[in-house]
Structures are given as structure tokens and as C-alpha cells.
Amino acid sequence: MDLRLMDKLRLLKIDTDLRPQIKMKPLSRYYFVTSTNPNEQFFVFASTAAWLIRKCGKDFAQPNEEDDPNTIIAAVIDVLKENEVNVDFSSHKLKQGWGDQVCSILNILSDEALKKENFEWQKPVVDIPESEESVDDIDQVEDETEILLDKVEDEMPIYSDESEGEFNADEKEPSNIAQKVHDWEAWKLELERVAPALRLKISADGRDWRARHAQMRSYKEELFDRFKTTGAQLNKLHSSISSAMDKVTARENILNEQFEPLVKEYGSLLDELNKVTNEYKEASVGITERQDMLNELSTKLENIKQRTESKGSSMNDNSPLVTAKKAVATLKKDIQEMDFQITVLLWLLTTKESNGNSLLNNKESGMIANEVY
Fold it and tell me: What distances in angstroms separate CA 139 from CA 144, 145, 184, 327, one per listed residue?
């Protein structure tokens, strides 16, 4: 794996050309080496590959996050095959957006782009100046620097309002200090101490037409830069929407042709339904009056039913007949007893008429009569 990949991309100005276009964060040296976010890494890989292909002088559309990864990978591999590059990469590994195969593809494309721009690697040239001062001179200068810095710190009240006169008198002294002081750390401390007093604040005037004009120009440039990417996306979206609308229109025409007889039948049935509803309205004019008459007749019928039921219940009552039967039975018994008594009396009368009855017979007859009574 070539670790100079990010150096090549920066030489091709990826930070100014591509990164603001796709709004991605600054890439680290090992961005395509390890896995951090596969979806984001694949989109950055596809965008970088497309940008490098355009750098090589070939037309290649800027991919979107919604595009099919297989289509993008196939297009990149086709470009590599056109350049007679042996391509034996797995599409599954390329979809990850990181790894050896991704880095090798980007290395090949970046090398081709650098060749297109006539770039050549050169060895670095390092100039090492020879120091003519001895160690003792350097130590002496450092000692003088410390003394002069202490003196400068003591004389710093020249920045106040009370020491304006002294500042003009000692105006030549800093030049001597600049010639003698070579200690970088001391100058750095001095700069940090003096920097707040040297800041210049410029308040932007909102009414200045120049500032507004510059702001409008910056906005215009930003809009044009963004339109380069969004224009292609909008055109693609317009084409997809128009094709979808054409498909919907064609499908609608087919459905209209298929359902035309059903629509006609539905219209005829709707007309018949309207006729039937009109007839129903005409026939249902006197329904309320007839309903009232029906209610009255039903009440009368209920009253008649109640009367007939009461009469039927009274006719089905057998208690008087039972009492009559009992009375007849008692009468028959009484008649039998009366007949028996009559026969006994007749016998007694017949016996009295005969003179030759004995006393015994009289007693017996008396006993019988007593028993009868």
C-alpha cells in the first residue's frame, strides 16, 4: 500500500476542488486504510475516483449517495480497462470503501492524473548554512540577550500615556536590540506580551456599498459552485420524474381503455337507480297516513283479543259443574234414604192392620222404627 496517496491527492488540490463540492471533512492519511463508516467511505471513494477520472481528461458523472454502488464500481472498472490496467478486484471489497484494492485504484488514477498535469517527483534540496560564530560568541550573545530583555521589560511603561516622551527619546534603542537579540523563545514571549496592544479592530459598515458588492459576489460564486453539483442532480431528477410521469400516463391510458365498458355499464346502472329512487319517493307519499291507520287497527285488534281471551277463560272454568254434580249426588242419596223410609212405613202400616200380630212382633217393629228414625 502506497502511503503517499494523500500527498498525491493534495498535490492535485483535493482540498480546494473536491472537498467543498461534496462537503466532506479533511481526510487523514489513513482514511482509506481502516474502516470507520463504510457508507461514507464508499461515497468519498466513488467521488474521489470520479474526480480523478475527470482530471485524466475523461467524462465521468459525479456520483450521488442514492446511486447504485454496483453501477459506480462497474463504470470505474471500465475506465481502468480502457487504460489497459489489469483489473482483478472484488466488487464486494470495493463497496466497503476502504482496503488495499480501494487504495490501489486511487493510486493508479492519481498517478495518471499527475502524468496528465506533467508532474514529476523531485528529490528535496536542503540548504544547511554554515555557522561562523564560535560557541563562546553564542554564549556571550545569549547573556547579552537576557540582560537586554530584562532592560526592555523594565522600560515597557513607554506604552502608557505617562511615558510618551520617553518613547521618542529611546526610539533608537530597539534597533540595537534587534541586532543583538537572537533568542527565538525570548522574542516569542515578547510578542505574546505586546500583541494585544498591537491589534487593530476594523468594524464593518453595513451601509458601505463596496462591502455589500463584495458579499454579493461571494454569494454569487458560492451559488455557481454549488449549482455545478446540484444542476446535474436536478437534471437527473427531472429526467427520472419525467420518465415516471410518462409511464404513469401510459398506464392511465391503458386502464381507461380497459375500464371503459365498465364505466358505461356503471352509468346505465346509475340512471336506473335514479329512476327507482324517484318512483320510491312518489310511492312513499301516503306511507305516514297509512302507518297511523295501521296503528289504530292494531290497537283495536289488541282490545278484541283481550276480550275474547277473558271470555274463553270464563267458559273453560269447570267449578260450577263440579258443584252441580256434587249436589246431584247428594240428592240421589237423600232420595234413596227417603224411599227406604217409605218402604219401612208401608210395612209397618200393613202389619198394624193384621190383628193376629204378637207382642214380639210389635217390639221388633218398634225397634225397627226406632232404628229408622
Answer: 9, 10, 14, 166
On whether the CB atoms of residues 55 and 12 are closer than 8 A, the answer is yes
- Total residues belonging to the chain: 373
Nearest Cα to Cα of residue 115 among 12, 3, 218, 219: 12
The CB density around residue 368, as the number of other CB atoms within 10 Å, is 13
**35 close to 41: Cβ distance less than 8 angstroms:** yes
Q: What is the mean pLDDT of each run of 10 residues along the chain (373 residues)?
A: 71 80 77 80 85 84 82 84 76 80 84 81 60 45 45 46 44 46 73 74 62 86 87 88 92 90 91 90 79 89 86 71 86 90 88 62 54 48
CA distance 329 to 351: 34
Nearest to 75 by CA among 42, 104, 50, 103: 50
Domain boundaries, the chain: 5-116, 329-372
